DNA sequence: CATGAATGAGCCTTCATTCAT
DNA sequence: GATGAATGAAGGCTCATTCAT
């Protein structure tokens, strides 16, 4: 499973030509969007923080919205990156004997991602409801893909007798809620609280494992 | 535990004098705010949808923001209403022998609330991050109150030997995530999906009860 | 020569029916107009200060401008009241042997008027340039009348050999400037300065008398 | 004593960068402010008269008020420019043997200034009462400075035995009123009247000289 | 006669976007 | 490629005036 740190860096590698200025623009945009929201951020403000002329923004991004999308779309992709490894069942056979091990690996992996990219995830969460294209892309690409992969994994471990029968929708939702709830509390709502991550994650995994194996 | 339906109605009862026009303004604002977000909604648009002159909005609410707050503040209050019954331990002794029964009652109660007030809850969630006063009020009034009540309840049932020891923070987060995750999936993300609520709730309660009683 | 104190009172006597409310409105309007200027004063503000409903203002005065005129027009009239006594030459023969006595009487009379009505005079001065009707009325009624009367008076004392020959325009302007300059300094620009009125007036009269009698 | 013609030109020279558009805006603003008053002038109107977009005004002046101040503040400075020559007593010794000569020079100088800048002076006079910062700046900078210089001058000629003893406040007020009265009549109240400036100024100087030397 | 809710035109200001330099 | 002056539509808000009660 690949290590990905701050998306902004990856994001800049993806595109062929990235001026120093363009990088400054993206950094400024990410920071202000996350702080005040897309609609309440002016391009003038971004330009100032980035140290470029307002016109320069529009040389790189046709519209303000395109700037937003250039941030949000890659974030969405990276968000599910670990779930779209092609031959996931092989991974499972090879690396993780038990569902619990798999779960722990995924949680740790996404925790790192969340930690490194919280500002961009915030923007993603805030803006999805207001941009139908984003919503649709999210539902179709992200939601569906995760669901499909998860189903394979889930059935894999059910076949192994490690998990009781339950519809994938429900189990995914229950597990997803628990993990996402933790990550949001940890990195969005109360990042300054004194967290004992190891213990919390153990507790969470135990909660999930027992929860889905209720008799 | 009180029945509360659509807040908008209660909201209108709270204030002594509520013109027909004012009601129209509130309804229109709630709908458009929830659809496009506060910052992207123009007062002109609200006025048109409400069928009043733009000036009329400002006769009732000094600023656009005051209009937002007049919607969001009561929503916050009603959101936690069931948790601020004064003598909650009595309620527990009298009404709910088992933690599971209590949990089921709370879930059902908040599910009704969520169902009736999803538009306003959406606005609340969207706007809290961008309005420090709201954030603070939420943290202090809502967060703290719920946590305190929950701790009493939790220790009540722990004393009865029904629940294993676990810090209230963690258990509240785990239970909260699960329930909120369900309500958001149910009424925000996929309200049109064909839900079997009874089964999902049973599954969720079983998930939680087993989860927190892991040995 | 008649004694007239605060115009507002006279103003109210002139009109047949003056409600208590109407008086309140006028008082409020005078105060705020003088403080912030006509254009920057809102009828809402006047209504609040007067303790009446905004509609009440428009019951008594068709428009905001009519309210202004109802204040300014009488002020203009009273301002020149002492100069339109019909048989002024009789007055002169009877009451004032010397031009200096006449001058002193006029100064003292207008000083009292200025003292009692400075707020309204301020409004008059401020608004005249922006309302052609006022300007015209001022020029025609006030300016002309004063000039005519002054000419009679001036020639009266010239005939008596008390004053040297000089065009009435010039002498009126020189005397008028001196007196008005004093009254404005005294009651508008530096009313809080510690004035010795008697001495200043003596000095001014001496200045004028010597000035116009230059050889 | 320096020659200064229309302030607007000087005003534009003062600032390094003055777009053609900015000049148009200033010209338009000066004209309309003077005609209708600051409060009754809309930025839209200024923009139209200047032939620019309304937004352009706010690119150069953050607010409408800043536009006003950018006109009024320099006017105030230029208004007293001739009085703040550093070594004024030298000027007196060198250039003007008699007070009368000095007086005549000042009058002529300020007459030219008034003639060239009457619109801006009008605005200054109209707006000072309603903007406390202006009032204060006027009192402190302008009023005080003129008074101080005048006192020096006055005492200079008193020492020479050309003028009788009189408090500087009074004499300045008497002389100032006379001169200002003339300039206002000449250029504000009745500019279209057929003035014989030479004669009027002679008359005025004779009026003042005799007035202050009353025995 | 008095009220004050309602109006809608108009105000100052902001903002994404364009384009000549 | 980068700039920033210029644009003009749109935004939030104010205000004189009307009118049903």
TrEMBL record, chains A, B, C, D:
Recall the GO molecular function terms of this protein's record: DNA binding
The source organism is Falsibacillus albus
Could you tell me the keywords of this UniProt record?
Answer: DNA-binding, Repressor
Q: Which residues belong to any copy of the HTH tetR-type domain?
A: 19-79
Q: Tell whether Repressor is among the UniProt keywords.
A: yes
Q: Would you tell me the protein name for this molecule?
A: TetR/AcrR family transcriptional regulator
Q: Which residues bind DNA?
A: 42-61
* Gene3D superfamilies found in the cross-reference section: Homeodomain-like (1.10.10.60), Tetracycline Repressor, domain 2 (1.10.357.10)
Q: By its UniProt entry, which Pfam families does this protein fall under?
A: TetR_N
Matches recorded under PANTHER family: ACREF/ENVCD OPERON REPRESSOR-RELATED, ACREF_ENVCD OPERON REPRESSOR-RELATED
């Amino acid at each position: 499973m690949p290590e990905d740190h701050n998306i902004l860096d990856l994001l800049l590698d993806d595109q062929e030509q990235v001026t120093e200025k363009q990088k400054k623009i993206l950094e400024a945009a990410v920071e202000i969007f996350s702080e005040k929201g897309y609609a309440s951020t002016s391009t003038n403000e971004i330009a100032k923080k980035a140290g470029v002329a307002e016109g320069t923004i529009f040389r790189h991004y046709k519209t303000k919205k395109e700037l937003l999308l250039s941030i949000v779309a890659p974030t969405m992709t990276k968000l599910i990156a670990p779930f779209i490894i092609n031959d996931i069942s092989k991974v499972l056979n090879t690396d993780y004997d038990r569902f619990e091990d798999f779960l722990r690996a995924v949680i740790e992996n996404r925790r790192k991602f969340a930690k490194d990219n919280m500002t961009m995830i915030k923007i993603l969460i805030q803006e999805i409801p207001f941009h139908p294209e984003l919503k649709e892309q999210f539902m179709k690409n992200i939601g569906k893909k995760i669901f499909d992969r998860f189903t394979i994994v889930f059935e894999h471990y059910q076949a192994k007798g490690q998990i009781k029968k339950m519809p994938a929708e429900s189990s995914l939702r229950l597990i997803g809620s628990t993990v996402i709830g933790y990550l949001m509390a940890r990195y969005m709502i109360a990042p300054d609280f004194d967290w004992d991550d190891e213990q919390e994650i153990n507790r969470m995994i135990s909660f999930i494992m027992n929860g889905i194996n209720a008799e």
